[in-house]
Design brief:
It is built from 12 helices and 7 strands. Helix 2 crosses helix 11, helix 4 packs parallel to helix 6 and helix 5 packs parallel to helix 8. The chain has 2 domains: about 35 residues; about 240 residues, NAD(P)-binding Rossmann-like Domain (Rossmann fold). With about 280 residues, the protein is an alpha/beta fold. It starts with a helix and ends with a strand.
């Protein structure tokens, strides 16, 4: 066989490989689209950061999106960009707000993303403000329990097994000086998720936690605005920002929504799902 013939053979094999690869990729994308067609996701804390990025990606993937947050202006801006989404202005830290959300969702709910959370400017736990501590629990923990509770009728009507993700953090498993209230609330949120995992699975509802890593959000900005004396990792986060090494909300949203909608059940339920670039 001549050299040219060998090169042509190698060339055609590579063309065949890439053609097959693209075909498989298209089939997988089509399969995912068919899998989520006519399904609905509720995203809390949807007005900014990871929540807003998840709204954008979920809408792009063809999901019916219900976005909720306290800021009417920001939700209106999102709906102007994406007219097909449903928005609900509500405070999920209150019983009234949770009841409002549940009453406005008439359709089966296939996916629920507990994204909303609060982190106050760092201060030593020994000097913690009682109102801020209480709000950390009220916003970061209670909706996981009581909003889920309110939405059980819609979750039970899901097309397949309904899936819920709660956003967790390294702060749920580690004690960080300066953000004690946040650490405590996230630890409680993780435990609430794990307890619900045992209680909801027999009902055909799957729940797990998702750890996004160090993401460039308003919370990150709050941490970077502190000092190392109060929050020892402030300088590290400032350096990550300077070096452009923070994860973007867009990248988290793409991984999170894909995991929520398409991971096999065993993979979804095994352990905390972690962001992978």
């Amino acid at each position: 066989m001549s050299r040219i013939a060998r090169y042509l053979r190698i060339f055609y094999r590579r063309v065949e490989f890439f053609t097959t690869f693209l075909l498989v990729q298209r089939v997988m994308q089509r399969s995912l689209l068919l899998k989520i067609m006519n399904k609905t996701i509720l995203i809390t804390g949807a007005s900014r950061g990871i929540g807003a990025a998840c709204v954008r990606y979920a809408e792009k993937m063809g999901l019916g999106v219900v976005a909720t947050a306290r800021s009417k202006d920001k939700l209106d801006a999102l709906q102007e960009q994406y007219p097909t989404i449903q928005t609900i202005v509500a405070d999920i830290s209150t019983a009234k707000g949770r009841e409002t959300i549940a009453s406005r969702i008439k359709q089966p709910l296939d996916f629920l993303l507990h994204n909303a959370a609060v982190l106050y400017p760092p201060k030593k736990l020994i000097e913690a403000d009682n109102t801020e501590f209480t709000q950390s629990i009220t916003i970061n923990v209670e909706p996981i329990i009581f909003l889920t509770q309110q939405l059980l009728p819609q979750l039970k009507q899901a097309h397949d097994k309904a899936r819920i993700l709660t956003l967790t953090s390294r702060a749920a498993n580690n004690a960080y000086a300066g953000i004690g209230s946040y650490c405590i609330s996230k630890a409680a949120a993780l435990m609430a998720t794990n307890v619900l995992k045992t209680e909801l699975e027999p009902m055909g509802i799957l729940i797990n936690s998702y750890s996004p890593g160090v993401v460039d959000t308003a919370m990150q900005k709050t941490l970077r605005s502190s000092t190392d004396e109060i929050f020892p990792y402030s300088s590290d986060f400032k350096q990550l920002k300077t070096d452009n090494k923070l994860i973007t909300p867009k990248h988290v949203a793409e991984h999170l929504i894909t995991a929520l909608t398409s991971l096999p059940e065993t993979g979804f339920m095994h352990d905390t799902i972690k962001f992978k670039p």
